[in-house]
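Progress report, Aim 2. The chain analyzed during this reporting quarter is listed below.
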Amino acid sequence: MSKRLYRYEGSRRIRRKAVLYRHFAADGELLYVGLSVHPMQRLAQHAHAAKWFKDTVRIELEHLNDDVDALQAEGDAIFKEQPTYNVLFKGRPRLQKVVAKETARKREEETKSEQH
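Predicted structure tokens for the chain:
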């Protein structure tokens, strides 16, 4: 299981376990789905910059163990649940490229560790 997840949050490149989060409005509308290894910091960023944040009344967090699974889970949630304010992954092609790249990297790491 890889603990590396490369995502840009602000200007920092990060490597840690990921949390998938969902923001909901009072009427149950899914406003936004995201992925972060620092969910509380990301929450603060959304609070400061996202126009939809003022409508958030509930946030659900889902802790994920594997970066490929995390990327897939985020893409699946956005694609299937169609949150109002997400743009990335709604059409899916970019997600498939990201997951394929992470899967290849993970296999390469496993092969190298088996050879040593």
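The mean pLDDT is 79. Strands lie at 8-9, 12-13, 18-24, 30-36, 58-64. These observations will guide the mutagenesis work planned for the next reporting period.
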